[in-house]
């Protein structure tokens, strides 16, 4: 797990001034690899690398790594979990290291087409492969977007790639423009959606894509398309349970490959508990587990006591930090400074990563189960909505506007009741198609609210926030890529939007801010294939989701986990703590500041309206949670933007 940058000049050579600035840009991502740093280059190219040593801790694992008689150079961020098996297939190859980087390089130097290599890799990765002889660059990203890769094609045709945007911006200068599409997506979804970023001109290589560059010509292609089979290939009953147990267990085993100890994030739910159970089953006896709790009445469930109970059950060493409003407030500046681009959902992972990084370099997380096995509460609401008669009759055409109007008149408590929510979905008020309902469920600001905040037209914002090309292609192909199941179509929407653009991106940035490698065994090609074969009814019913996953491992789970089907969430108490005097003063000063108004990213009148609405509501008001999300998104954006200006003034 590391970080890299690269510059590839379109004609001419790199001058000393640009090379010096590239070295400075590399230093900006030292947190991704504090163990070592090195650079390589030629007349028209530069590659820099920061190393977090996980596999082959010796100098033989140093990057950039040279191949093919020094004609090719590789920088690689991530882990290839099946590298030992792949190494056995490279007959006649000479190896100078014991890690996965050299295996990847040997495969690339032999392959006539890179897709042949990419489809054989089991892991998380982003890499850049430079062929100096032909003057071509190949860069690629793993199928589901666990590891990031950003790029910028400059006006003269030169290309820069990197693991974090801040390194690219160093080369772009202080006047880099904020993207209107990025802003619209940020407020609509809570995170910018690939291939967009928060900056004009900077692109995020989407998951499962590769990039080719030569002499200023850039081509981006897709090598992996997430899709699931129809009814004919699905399995149920005992066969499904046995298959689930085998595939998930083997994935966890593969993700334990490391030359340093591996820890685990542990909450009070099924997914992280399953990680611990399988780590024990695969022979780990000294497991270190990490969690976050609260020292006062925070207004949200504190799962850390349940996590401690689980840790004791499996004989783990348990490490927890109990937060207070004041202690979290004291961490805000460090957190905000770590963000590569604004996001509304990363603070919890940043906090638990800070705890874990004091003890280990690598941790596992149970992320991914909800997205592929139907674990979110709104999945169950949609299931209920599909069973209601109103959704299957011509009455739906009349009920949608009626439900929409009635929703605005109901008290907040009634609006939040699951029965009304299900009726709202069934009526079509949340959208008539599955993609529209998914966008409603995942949205933070509505399109109208976003338009008012950005001072734009609703139609324009709809195009900017929902017209993303990756999502457009998926929506068009949804019936073919997930036939015979509305649930599988919904989960593929999660796979292409929320999973890579919020969860995985946030996990990478916030864990690597603390020089911590975060592995996600449930986001794995074999597990993805498994999830597509499990009967939808085995995943989700009205009692809850992840039914097959829980049933397959019931015998190795604690009783309180095996029998509890309620969805657990790792929720921070921001809704309540943001009302404390210090928080309120900080947030208000930030959003009402002259610099915020001068920056012009948000309409000041709309900002004030949201702030007043939030602080006017009581913490027990059902509307308070959504209002707190709105305020938090605005505060994070302005705080992040202010830091970008400060960095170029230092």
Q: Oligomerization state of this entry?
A: single chain
Mean pLDDT: 93
| Main β-sheet, spatial strand arrangement | 2-3-1-9-8-10
Number of helices: 31
Gap between N and C termini, in Å? 29 Å
Structural Rg = 24 Å
Shape, principal axes of CA atoms: globular
Helix content: 40-55%
Largest sheet: 6 strands, antiparallel
Briefly note the structural class of the backbone: alpha+beta
Please give a structural write-up.
- The protein has 650 residues and is α+β, with helices and mostly antiparallel strands.
- The protein is 48% helix and 15% strand.
- The protein contains 31 helices and 17 strands.
- It has a six-stranded antiparallel sheet with strand order 2-3-1-9-8-10, with helices on one face. The chain has a six-stranded antiparallel sheet with strand order 4-5-6-7-11-12, covered by helices on one side.
- Strand 6 and strand 7 (136-141) form a beta hairpin.
- Helix 6 (180-189) packs across helix 18 (447-454) and helix 30 (604-616) crosses helix 31 (623-649).
- It is globular, with a radius of gyration of 24 Å.
- The two termini are 29 Å apart.
Keywords:
650 residues; alpha+beta; 6-stranded antiparallel beta sheet; 31 helices; 48% helix; globular
What's the structural blueprint in terms of helices and strands?
Blueprint (H helix, E strand, L loop, with lengths): L1 E7 L7 H12 L8 E7 L2 E7 L13 E3 L4 E9 L2 H6 L11 H11 L3 H5 L4 E9 L4 E6 L8 E4 L5 E4 L2 H8 L7 H10 L12 E3 L4 E6 L2 E6 L14 H18 L7 E4 L4 H12 L6 E7 L9 H11 L2 E7 L1 H14 L8 H10 L5 E3 L4 H5 L3 H11 L7 H15 L2 H4 L2 H10 L6 H9 L4 H8 L3 H9 L2 H13 L4 H11 L1 H15 L4 E3 L5 H9 L2 H4 L7 H6 L6 H4 L11 H4 L3 H11 L2 H6 L4 H13 L6 H27 L1
Parallel strand pairs: 13-14, 13-16, 14-15, 16-17
Antiparallel strand pairs: 1-3, 1-9, 2-3, 4-5, 5-6, 6-7, 7-11, 8-9, 8-10, 11-12
